[in-house]
């Protein structure tokens, strides 16, 4: 269960361990930020995600797909769904990041070259943003590299700022780690314990542990930021659950992060339901979209055995799999694949066909998964409870989905989506058992 502790701090540090500018100031309450009497308009709280294009570790890391979603998309979804921000912004210097941000519903501030350098600090970029947005009273600086952030965390922090009068609130996580003094190489000294008595080592359950900044977010009022601080004044920390504290910049690599996100991430306002039907487009999903014609005018297609195994696993788990195509494919050719799936070809209205299948099985749309790759799949992708596209799907289809596969069509996309479905269904089953 989340816990929050509050209180003034004795020192200030900038995010990511940057040097502080001294002790945090003791601020006087004023009318800006909604603390004066007779203020009718609530203070403007803006979410701000800093996402420059330069990344020495992973190129364009902020929009690299994590569990089928651009990394920045996870925190944007949480911020937008929290309902506590008057505006949600992404500060970037890169066109591709701008496009992704707008796709998720955020506004974009184009940051200058001066605040986009490797040496630029988060505070530099936030102050620049405020210089262009006089309407903003409070900034919630959310780190793009914290994909397990949930709206409930942001809602509670907004309440601390707005209702309880805190000037700044930052996220922390509790860790149970024993620390020892560092000894420089070549120095003849012995290490000393910093937070334990070696003669009486406590058990984990007998020790509360210690609080560490996890970099997930830093909320601060304008007048504090303009003085050069993200932490100061009446200051408090917000303790996040350990499983939600994931920072890709620091302590976790990409594959492990994907598993954590699939298990503990936030997937939207509506609760996931158990999938009962998967509908898959034939050309470009089951196959790579290439059609070969033999000398006797017979159609030849290719598919990946991994995808056939994926279909088999889905069926064994009780999920019906059906195939659809707007092209009049050869049913004889498809039957030779021995997938044992009901199919409909030459379809002019895919949404109508899938809707008929759904009603026939007595399902709601949340129980339907759809894998498509073309403009003709767009409406089905938007309606389905789970939707995905292969990596090489058209841009219109990619914008309509919640998961973009790493694999191309006809090259393992079905198997990959099947694994994604199984992981999410495990999440559904676990939540039902709680």
From TrEMBL:
Residues 1-42 are annotated as: Disordered. Belongs to the CMP-NeuNAc synthase family. The gene is CMAS. Keywords: Nucleotidyltransferase, Transferase. InterPro entries: CMP-NeuNAc_synthase (IPR050793), Cytidylyl_trans (IPR003329), HAD-like_sf (IPR036412), HAD_sf (IPR023214), Nucleotide-diphossugar_trans (IPR029044). It catalyses: an N-acylneuraminate + CTP = a CMP-N-acyl-beta-neuraminate + diphosphate. This is N-acylneuraminate cytidylyltransferase. Its EC number is 2.7.7.43. It comes from Cavia porcellus (Guinea pig). Gene3D superfamilies: HAD superfamily/HAD-like, Spore Coat Polysaccharide Biosynthesis Protein SpsA, Chain A. It is an enzyme of class 2 (transferase). The keyword Repeat does not apply. Catalyzes the activation of N-acetylneuraminic acid (NeuNAc) to cytidine 5'-monophosphate N-acetylneuraminic acid (CMP-NeuNAc), a substrate required for the addition of sialic acid. Has some activity toward NeuNAc, N-glycolylneuraminic acid (Neu5Gc) or 2-keto-3-deoxy-D-glycero-D-galacto-nononic acid (KDN). The keyword Transmembrane does not apply. The lineage of its organism: Eukaryota, Metazoa, Chordata, Craniata, Vertebrata. Pathway: Amino-sugar metabolism; N-acetylneuraminate metabolism.
């Amino acid at each position: 269960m989340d816990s929050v502790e509050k209180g003034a701090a004795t020192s200030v540090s900038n995010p990511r361990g940057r040097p502080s500018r001294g002790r945090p100031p003791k601020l006087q309450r004023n009318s800006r930020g909604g603390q004066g009497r007779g203020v009718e308009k609530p203070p403007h709280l803006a979410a701000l995600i800093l996402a420059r294009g330069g990344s020495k570790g992973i190129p364009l890391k902020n929009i690299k797909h994590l569990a089928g979603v651009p990394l920045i998309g996870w925190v944007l979804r949480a911020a937008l769904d929290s309902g506590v921000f008057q505006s949600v912004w992404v500060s970037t210097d890169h066109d591709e990041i701008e496009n992704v941000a707008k796709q998720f519903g955020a506004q974009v501030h184009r940051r200058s070259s001066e605040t986009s350098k490797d040496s630029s600090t988060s505070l530099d970029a936030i102050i620049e943003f405020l210089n262009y947005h006089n309407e903003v009273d409070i900034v919630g600086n959310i780190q793009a590299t914290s994909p397990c952030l949930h709206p409930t965390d942001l809602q509670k922090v907004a309440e601390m700022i707005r209702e309880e009068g805190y000037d700044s609130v930052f996220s922390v996580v509790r860790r149970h780690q024993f620390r020892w003094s560092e000894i420089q190489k070549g120095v003849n000294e012995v290490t000393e314990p910093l937070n334990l008595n070696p003669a009486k080592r406590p058990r984990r359950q007998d020790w509360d542990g210690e609080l560490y900044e996890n970099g997930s977010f830093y909320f601060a009022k304008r007048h504090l930021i303009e003085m050069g601080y993200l932490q100061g004044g009446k200051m408090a920390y917000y303790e996040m659950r350990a499983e939600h504290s994931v920072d890709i910049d620091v302590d976790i690599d990409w594959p492990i992060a994907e598993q954590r996100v699939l298990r503990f991430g936030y997937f939207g306002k509506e609760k996931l339901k158990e999938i009962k039907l998967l509908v898959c487009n034939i050309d470009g999903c089951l196959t790579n979209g290439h059609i070969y014609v033999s000398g006797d005018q017979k159609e030849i297609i290719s598919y990946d055995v991994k995808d056939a195994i994926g279909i088999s696993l889905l069926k064994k788990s009780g999920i019906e799999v059906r195939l659809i195509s707007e092209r009049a494919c050869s049913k004889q050719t498809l039957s030779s694949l021995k997938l044992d799936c009901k199919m409909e070809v030459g379809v002019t209205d895919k949404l109508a066909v899938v809707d008929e299948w759904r009603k026939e099985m007595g399902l709601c749309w949340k129980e339907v998964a759809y894998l498509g790759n073309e403009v003709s799949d767009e409406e089905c992708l938007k309606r389905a409870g789970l939707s995905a596209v292969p990596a090489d799907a058209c841009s219109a289809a990619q914008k309509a989905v919640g998961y973009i596969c790493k694999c191309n069509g006809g090259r393992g996309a079905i198997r990959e989506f099947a694994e994604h479905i199984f992981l999410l269904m495990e999440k559904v089953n676990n939540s039902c058992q709680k």
